[in-house]
Amino acid sequence: MNDLEKMRHTLSHVLAAAVKELYPDVKFGIGPAINDGFYYDIDFGETKISDADLAKIEKKMRSIIKRRLKMTKREATKTEALNWARDNQQDYKIELINELPENEKITFYDMGDLFTDLCKGPHVDNLGEVGPFKLMRIAGAYWRGDEKREMLTRIYGVAFATDDELNKYLEQQEEAKKRDHRKLGKELDLFCFSDLVGAGLPLFTPRGTELRELMANYSLSLRGREGFKKVWTPHITKTDLYKKSGHYAKFGDELFMVHSQVSGEDFAMKPMNCPHHAQIFASRPRTYRDMPVRYMEATTDYRDEKTGELGGLSRVRSLTQDDSHVFCMKTQIKEEVRRLVGIVKELYETMGMQKLRARLSYRSDEDKYLGDKKLWEMAQNQIKEAAIDNGLDYFEQEGEAAFYGPKIDFMAEDALGREHQLATIQLDFVQPERFGLEFTNNKGEKERPVMIHHATLGSIERFLSVFIEHTGGWFPFWCAPEQVRILTINDKVSDYVAKITDILDTIVLDTPLKYNELRYSVDDSADSLGKKIKRATEMKIPAILIVGPKDAEEGIVSIRLRDKEDKIKLNKLSTYLKGLK
Predict the structure, then answer these.
(1) What is the C-alpha radius of gyration for the chain, rounded to an integer number of angstroms?
(2) Cα(260)–Cα(274) distance, rounded to whole angstroms?
(3) CA angle 101, 107, 110 (to 5 degrees)
(4) CA geometry: angle at 413 spanning 412 and 414, to 5°?
(5) Is residue 235 among the annotated active site residues?
(6) Catalytic one among 27, 179, 274, 428?
(7) pTM for the complete prediction?
(8) 453 assigned to active site
(9) Catalytic residue, candidates 323, 409, 414, 551
(10) Is 123 a catalytic residue?
């Protein structure tokens, strides 16, 4: 643990000590250091606290820190630890201690004579060494992540080594609030939720549907260019399919179950598409001349996520994946991975998220992985060679592989410098074996193919949550749901507006999706021009065309973009709009 982590971990103890002084009857869960800061899960009993109480708690923390108390480690037996927890009526600590082996030495940290907590540490030597911090928010958290257990209050704080770093972080958080995709989704009329439909089941408006289909179609077009063919699979399937693939044993508790009233059979809403695509591959004989076989599908899957983990489009129960699967020979793995890496790089460059890191996720020595170790080693070497050959900024991590094979996970950086795991390339040796997939090789022998899973956007819903916040809702011209809005100054320019719309109707834009018609609307309401401009700006329309009698007389169009204004001759309008990015 580095010095910053020690500081953050110590601050979680200071937080607990402050809360204990203000609310003496509280019971404590856990309080770790995390990315950017710390938190503590606390049971306040009947007392209700909110974000309004954070200032009081933070003030108490600062007064404790001024005392520069020492953090002292000491050991205890399990019996001594249980006696301490019982004496202090710390029920959650009793549960944690009871799970430890009988002969294990248990460690405590004393904060001077003020506060003691069960903890492995490490911590700073004294409180004078903690850096700048701020309490941020309060949230609910089930004890040990189990929604059947007690709901505790989680208090989050952030901490950094310097005031500059803290201030930069706080400024970034303010910007993040403005860009929150849930806020922008409502303001820009992109998606909504309904209690009657259910939590985690987003509904997309016409504008939002335009955006998501543009994203999905762009992803499909990139893969179509590389030899992938579209397939279609149903949304429910017999549970036998997932039992045979191995997914039922691993993810059975995430399945939405469907019972047939006619046949009595049990079905599941599909949580993933790979077993279906494997059945298409298995539907007829294959030879080495057919290989590789590449399928793609943009389709909605369903997972019974816990209600407390749902959030906007980031975590949903109905997720649409731009999914694809390659069935290839072992000797083709490297080339197929190279092809998929190229698709990922091109898509994220188009989206303005060029800064990509790749995590090469390998197996560890645990028993959770299936398949031949030698095959794993060969595949891990090939994905590493592909990463090097494609100039990826990569790092390797053992223990992060899927149970069926190694993978490349891509982390894209957004405009606020935050990393998001989005695209993935995963090798699979298990499903071909379980489903008995085979092809005839050039020696006339039967051979197992390797299956490669790939998603470029990942979950389209989750990608959109990232993309909306990355752009702040100012989408690139090519994918804006509404690219142009014409605003009339008065009702005397209808004939001139008709000339403009005639031009817009003939414009075919050369975009990443190739040759799209322009998406526009006309606001000829009786409202003032100021109101119309305000509405269009709030909807973040990339190009606003303002038309008045003087414009009609001079044969020009006034254009307002996000960062500049222009006046364009009517006969130059088509060329101008085609040049917008």
Answers:
(1) 29
(2) 23
(3) 155
(4) 120
(5) no
(6) 274
(7) 0.87
(8) yes
(9) 323
(10) no
